[in-house]
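Hello K.,

You asked for the raw outputs rather than the summary table, so here they are, unedited. I folded two proteins back to back in the same session to keep the settings identical. This is the first:
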Amino acid sequence: MEIQIIRAEYGHLECLLPLFNSYRKFYEQSQDENHARSYLKDRMTNDEAVIYLAALTNDPKKFVGFVLLYPTFDSVEMAAVCVLHDLFVDPDYRRHGIGKLLMVAAEDFCRQQNAARIDLATATGNKKAQALYESLGYLRDTDFYQYSLEL
Protein backbone atom coordinates (compact mmCIF):
# COMPACT_ATOMS: atom_id res chain seq x y z
CA MET A 1 0.00 0.00 0.00
CA GLU A 2 1.44 3.35 -1.02
CA ILE A 3 0.53 6.47 0.90
CA GLN A 4 1.06 10.10 0.10
CA ILE A 5 1.00 12.79 2.77
CA ILE A 6 -0.47 16.14 1.80
CA ARG A 7 -1.09 19.35 3.67
CA ALA A 8 -4.82 19.85 4.06
CA GLU A 9 -6.44 22.88 2.50
CA TYR A 10 -9.94 24.21 2.98
CA GLY A 11 -11.12 22.12 0.00
CA HIS A 12 -10.27 18.96 1.96
CA LEU A 13 -12.64 19.81 4.80
CA GLU A 14 -15.41 17.36 3.87
CA CYS A 15 -12.88 14.54 3.38
CA LEU A 16 -11.29 15.29 6.76
CA LEU A 17 -14.58 15.40 8.62
CA PRO A 18 -15.24 11.61 8.87
CA LEU A 19 -11.70 11.00 10.16
CA PHE A 20 -12.00 13.86 12.66
CA ASN A 21 -15.32 12.49 13.92
CA SER A 22 -13.86 8.99 14.24
CA TYR A 23 -10.96 10.43 16.23
CA ARG A 24 -13.38 12.20 18.57
CA LYS A 25 -15.46 9.03 18.89
CA PHE A 26 -12.29 7.16 19.96
CA TYR A 27 -12.07 9.67 22.83
CA GLU A 28 -15.76 9.11 23.63
CA GLN A 29 -16.93 12.54 22.50
CA SER A 30 -20.40 13.24 21.17
CA GLN A 31 -20.80 13.26 17.40
CA ASP A 32 -21.90 16.64 16.08
CA GLU A 33 -20.96 16.87 12.42
CA ASN A 34 -22.06 20.49 12.02
CA HIS A 35 -20.06 21.63 15.03
CA ALA A 36 -17.03 19.62 13.89
CA ARG A 37 -17.29 21.16 10.41
CA SER A 38 -17.50 24.66 11.88
CA TYR A 39 -14.60 24.01 14.25
CA LEU A 40 -12.31 22.71 11.50
CA LYS A 41 -13.38 25.45 9.08
CA ASP A 42 -12.45 28.11 11.63
CA ARG A 43 -9.07 26.54 12.38
CA MET A 44 -8.26 26.23 8.68
CA THR A 45 -9.51 29.60 7.44
CA ASN A 46 -7.89 31.47 10.34
CA ASP A 47 -4.55 29.65 9.90
CA GLU A 48 -4.77 28.42 13.48
CA ALA A 49 -3.93 24.80 12.70
CA VAL A 50 -1.81 22.81 10.29
CA ILE A 51 -3.27 19.51 9.17
CA TYR A 52 -1.66 16.76 7.14
CA LEU A 53 -3.70 14.01 5.51
CA ALA A 54 -2.67 10.51 4.48
CA ALA A 55 -4.13 9.53 1.12
CA LEU A 56 -3.96 6.28 -0.81
CA THR A 57 -1.67 6.87 -3.78
CA ASN A 58 -3.88 4.79 -6.07
CA ASP A 59 -7.00 6.63 -4.85
CA PRO A 60 -5.90 10.16 -3.89
CA LYS A 61 -9.40 11.11 -2.75
CA LYS A 62 -9.38 8.31 -0.15
CA PHE A 63 -7.99 9.74 3.09
CA VAL A 64 -7.07 7.27 5.81
CA GLY A 65 -5.45 9.40 8.51
CA PHE A 66 -4.53 12.85 9.71
CA VAL A 67 -2.33 14.76 12.10
CA LEU A 68 -3.27 18.18 13.46
CA LEU A 69 -0.79 20.72 14.84
CA TYR A 70 -1.32 24.00 16.62
CA PRO A 71 1.68 26.30 16.19
CA THR A 72 2.22 28.41 19.31
CA PHE A 73 5.00 29.86 21.46
CA ASP A 74 6.84 29.19 24.71
CA SER A 75 7.59 32.24 26.85
CA VAL A 76 10.28 30.54 28.92
CA GLU A 77 12.24 29.43 25.87
CA MET A 78 11.15 32.50 23.86
CA ALA A 79 10.66 30.20 20.90
CA ALA A 80 8.06 28.77 18.61
CA VAL A 81 6.69 25.35 19.55
CA CYS A 82 4.12 23.09 17.96
CA VAL A 83 1.41 21.26 19.85
CA LEU A 84 0.59 18.00 18.14
CA HIS A 85 -2.95 17.64 19.33
CA ASP A 86 -4.48 14.98 17.12
CA LEU A 87 -3.19 11.90 15.31
CA PHE A 88 -5.62 9.40 13.86
CA VAL A 89 -5.44 6.54 11.38
CA ASP A 90 -8.55 4.72 10.18
CA PRO A 91 -8.58 1.35 12.02
CA ASP A 92 -8.81 -0.50 8.68
CA TYR A 93 -5.46 1.01 7.64
CA ARG A 94 -3.43 0.68 10.83
CA ARG A 95 -0.19 -1.28 11.08
CA HIS A 96 1.05 0.02 7.71
CA GLY A 97 3.27 2.83 9.00
CA ILE A 98 0.76 5.59 8.23
CA GLY A 99 0.93 7.08 11.72
CA LYS A 100 4.70 7.27 11.42
CA LEU A 101 4.46 8.98 8.02
CA LEU A 102 2.09 11.57 9.47
CA MET A 103 4.38 12.13 12.46
CA VAL A 104 7.37 12.65 10.16
CA ALA A 105 5.40 15.19 8.12
CA ALA A 106 4.50 17.02 11.33
CA GLU A 107 8.13 17.04 12.46
CA ASP A 108 9.29 18.32 9.06
CA PHE A 109 6.78 21.18 9.23
CA CYS A 110 7.84 22.13 12.76
CA ARG A 111 11.52 22.08 11.80
CA GLN A 112 10.76 24.35 8.82
CA GLN A 113 9.08 26.74 11.25
CA ASN A 114 12.20 26.68 13.46
CA ALA A 115 10.13 25.38 16.34
CA ALA A 116 12.08 24.49 19.46
CA ARG A 117 10.03 21.35 20.07
CA ILE A 118 6.81 19.45 19.53
CA ASP A 119 4.56 18.84 22.53
CA LEU A 120 1.88 16.19 22.64
CA ALA A 121 -0.27 14.31 25.09
CA THR A 122 -2.09 11.02 24.82
CA ALA A 123 -4.35 8.95 27.00
CA THR A 124 -2.50 6.94 29.62
CA GLY A 125 -4.06 3.76 28.26
CA ASN A 126 -3.16 4.43 24.62
CA LYS A 127 -0.11 2.16 24.63
CA LYS A 128 0.10 1.88 20.82
CA ALA A 129 0.38 5.64 20.42
CA GLN A 130 2.92 5.81 23.24
CA ALA A 131 5.02 3.15 21.53
CA LEU A 132 4.91 5.07 18.24
CA TYR A 133 5.93 8.35 19.88
CA GLU A 134 8.75 6.74 21.83
CA SER A 135 10.01 4.95 18.71
CA LEU A 136 10.34 8.38 17.07
CA GLY A 137 12.39 9.79 19.95
CA TYR A 138 9.67 11.52 21.99
CA LEU A 139 10.35 11.49 25.72
CA ARG A 140 7.71 11.30 28.42
CA ASP A 141 7.81 14.47 30.51
CA THR A 142 8.80 13.79 34.09
CA ASP A 143 9.48 17.42 35.05
CA PHE A 144 6.03 18.95 34.73
CA TYR A 145 2.48 18.03 35.66
CA GLN A 146 -0.24 18.84 33.21
CA TYR A 147 -3.28 20.62 34.63
CA SER A 148 -6.62 21.54 33.14
CA LEU A 149 -9.54 23.67 34.30
CA GLU A 150 -12.95 22.88 32.85
CA LEU A 151 -14.84 26.08 31.98
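The second followed immediately with the same parameters:
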Amino acid sequence: MRLSRRGLDLIKSFEGLRLVAYLCPAKVPTIGYGTTAGVTLKDVLDKRAITEAEAEAMLVHSVEFFEACIRKNVTITLNQNQFDALVSLVYNIGCGNLKTSRALKLTNERHFWEAGDAILLWDKIRDSAGRLVSSAGLFRRRKAERALFLERPVAPPLAAA
Protein backbone atom coordinates (compact mmCIF):
# COMPACT_ATOMS: atom_id res chain seq x y z
CA MET A 1 0.00 0.00 0.00
CA ARG A 2 1.14 3.52 -0.76
CA LEU A 3 0.20 6.88 0.71
CA SER A 4 -2.74 8.42 -1.14
CA ARG A 5 -2.96 12.00 -2.39
CA ARG A 6 -5.26 12.72 0.56
CA GLY A 7 -2.63 11.43 3.01
CA LEU A 8 0.11 13.41 1.30
CA ASP A 9 -2.01 16.57 1.41
CA LEU A 10 -2.63 16.00 5.13
CA ILE A 11 1.10 15.82 5.81
CA LYS A 12 1.79 18.89 3.68
CA SER A 13 -0.97 20.89 5.35
CA PHE A 14 0.44 20.34 8.83
CA GLU A 15 4.14 20.44 7.99
CA GLY A 16 3.93 23.53 5.80
CA LEU A 17 6.63 24.41 3.29
CA ARG A 18 9.78 26.20 4.38
CA LEU A 19 12.51 26.56 1.77
CA VAL A 20 15.21 27.70 4.23
CA ALA A 21 16.56 25.36 6.92
CA TYR A 22 15.28 26.07 10.43
CA LEU A 23 14.99 24.54 13.90
CA CYS A 24 11.55 23.05 14.50
CA PRO A 25 9.88 23.48 17.92
CA ALA A 26 11.68 20.31 19.07
CA LYS A 27 14.99 22.02 18.10
CA VAL A 28 15.64 19.59 15.24
CA PRO A 29 17.18 20.96 12.01
CA THR A 30 14.42 20.85 9.38
CA ILE A 31 13.72 21.98 5.81
CA GLY A 32 11.03 21.68 3.16
CA TYR A 33 7.90 19.83 4.29
CA GLY A 34 9.27 18.93 7.72
CA THR A 35 12.22 16.93 6.39
CA THR A 36 14.85 16.24 9.04
CA ALA A 37 16.90 13.45 7.43
CA GLY A 38 20.27 14.79 6.36
CA VAL A 39 19.57 18.32 7.64
CA THR A 40 22.22 19.65 10.01
CA LEU A 41 22.67 22.53 12.41
CA LYS A 42 25.21 23.89 9.92
CA ASP A 43 22.41 24.01 7.32
CA VAL A 44 20.35 26.11 9.73
CA LEU A 45 23.26 28.43 10.58
CA ASP A 46 24.19 28.79 6.89
CA LYS A 47 20.52 29.39 5.99
CA ARG A 48 20.61 26.56 3.46
CA ALA A 49 17.88 27.11 0.87
CA ILE A 50 16.19 24.62 -1.45
CA THR A 51 13.69 24.88 -4.27
CA GLU A 52 10.09 23.75 -4.07
CA ALA A 53 10.97 20.87 -6.42
CA GLU A 54 13.74 19.78 -4.03
CA ALA A 55 11.30 19.98 -1.11
CA GLU A 56 8.84 17.76 -3.01
CA ALA A 57 11.59 15.23 -3.77
CA MET A 58 12.65 15.17 -0.10
CA LEU A 59 9.03 14.69 0.94
CA VAL A 60 8.57 11.74 -1.45
CA HIS A 61 11.79 10.14 -0.20
CA SER A 62 10.77 10.60 3.44
CA VAL A 63 7.27 9.26 2.79
CA GLU A 64 8.74 6.10 1.25
CA PHE A 65 10.72 5.49 4.44
CA PHE A 66 7.66 5.99 6.65
CA GLU A 67 5.44 3.84 4.43
CA ALA A 68 7.98 1.04 4.89
CA CYS A 69 7.89 1.60 8.66
CA ILE A 70 4.11 1.11 8.66
CA ARG A 71 4.28 -1.95 6.41
CA LYS A 72 6.96 -3.51 8.65
CA ASN A 73 5.31 -2.82 12.01
CA VAL A 74 1.60 -3.14 11.33
CA THR A 75 0.73 -6.82 11.29
CA ILE A 76 -2.84 -6.54 9.99
CA THR A 77 -4.39 -5.32 6.76
CA LEU A 78 -5.23 -1.63 6.93
CA ASN A 79 -7.67 0.32 4.82
CA GLN A 80 -6.34 3.34 2.92
CA ASN A 81 -7.54 5.86 5.51
CA GLN A 82 -5.86 3.98 8.37
CA PHE A 83 -2.63 3.67 6.40
CA ASP A 84 -2.63 7.36 5.47
CA ALA A 85 -3.30 8.43 9.07
CA LEU A 86 -0.50 6.25 10.43
CA VAL A 87 1.99 7.45 7.80
CA SER A 88 1.16 11.05 8.76
CA LEU A 89 1.60 10.19 12.44
CA VAL A 90 4.94 8.44 11.96
CA TYR A 91 6.16 11.21 9.62
CA ASN A 92 5.88 13.47 12.65
CA ILE A 93 6.81 11.22 15.60
CA GLY A 94 9.32 8.89 13.91
CA CYS A 95 9.41 5.16 13.40
CA GLY A 96 11.07 4.44 16.73
CA ASN A 97 8.27 6.13 18.64
CA LEU A 98 5.64 4.32 16.60
CA LYS A 99 7.18 0.94 17.45
CA THR A 100 6.62 1.46 21.16
CA SER A 101 3.29 3.29 20.86
CA ARG A 102 -0.05 2.25 22.23
CA ALA A 103 -1.56 3.31 18.90
CA LEU A 104 0.44 0.60 17.08
CA LYS A 105 -0.31 -2.04 19.71
CA LEU A 106 -4.05 -1.36 19.59
CA THR A 107 -4.07 -1.20 15.79
CA ASN A 108 -2.40 -4.61 15.56
CA GLU A 109 -5.02 -5.92 18.01
CA ARG A 110 -7.78 -4.48 15.76
CA HIS A 111 -9.02 -2.17 18.53
CA PHE A 112 -9.43 0.67 16.05
CA TRP A 113 -11.48 3.08 18.15
CA GLU A 114 -9.00 2.83 21.01
CA ALA A 115 -6.07 3.10 18.57
CA GLY A 116 -7.60 6.30 17.22
CA ASP A 117 -7.80 7.65 20.76
CA ALA A 118 -4.16 6.64 21.34
CA ILE A 119 -3.13 8.77 18.35
CA LEU A 120 -4.36 11.78 20.32
CA LEU A 121 -1.76 11.11 23.02
CA TRP A 122 1.05 12.30 20.71
CA ASP A 123 0.30 16.02 21.14
CA LYS A 124 3.21 16.92 23.40
CA ILE A 125 6.39 18.93 22.92
CA ARG A 126 9.13 19.81 25.38
CA ASP A 127 9.05 23.33 26.79
CA SER A 128 12.15 25.38 27.57
CA ALA A 129 12.46 23.60 30.93
CA GLY A 130 12.33 20.18 29.26
CA ARG A 131 8.80 19.34 30.44
CA LEU A 132 6.31 17.68 28.12
CA VAL A 133 3.40 20.05 27.45
CA SER A 134 0.45 19.85 25.09
CA SER A 135 0.77 21.69 21.79
CA ALA A 136 -2.37 23.15 20.21
CA GLY A 137 -0.89 22.62 16.74
CA LEU A 138 -0.03 18.98 17.41
CA PHE A 139 -3.45 18.41 18.96
CA ARG A 140 -5.12 19.73 15.77
CA ARG A 141 -2.94 17.40 13.70
CA ARG A 142 -3.70 14.40 15.92
CA LYS A 143 -7.43 15.12 15.73
CA ALA A 144 -7.22 15.17 11.92
CA GLU A 145 -5.18 11.93 11.88
CA ARG A 146 -7.61 10.26 14.28
CA ALA A 147 -10.61 11.35 12.20
CA LEU A 148 -9.01 9.95 9.04
CA PHE A 149 -7.97 6.74 10.82
CA LEU A 150 -11.54 6.12 11.98
CA GLU A 151 -13.28 7.25 8.79
CA ARG A 152 -14.78 4.40 6.84
CA PRO A 153 -13.38 4.21 3.33
CA VAL A 154 -15.71 5.05 0.48
CA ALA A 155 -16.68 1.97 -1.46
CA PRO A 156 -16.07 2.11 -5.21
CA PRO A 157 -19.21 2.55 -7.33
CA LEU A 158 -20.93 -0.59 -8.57
CA ALA A 159 -20.30 -1.45 -12.20
CA ALA A 160 -23.22 -0.82 -14.51
CA ALA A 161 -25.21 -3.97 -15.22
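The mean pLDDT is 94.

Happy to rerun anything if the numbers look odd on your end.

Regards,
P.
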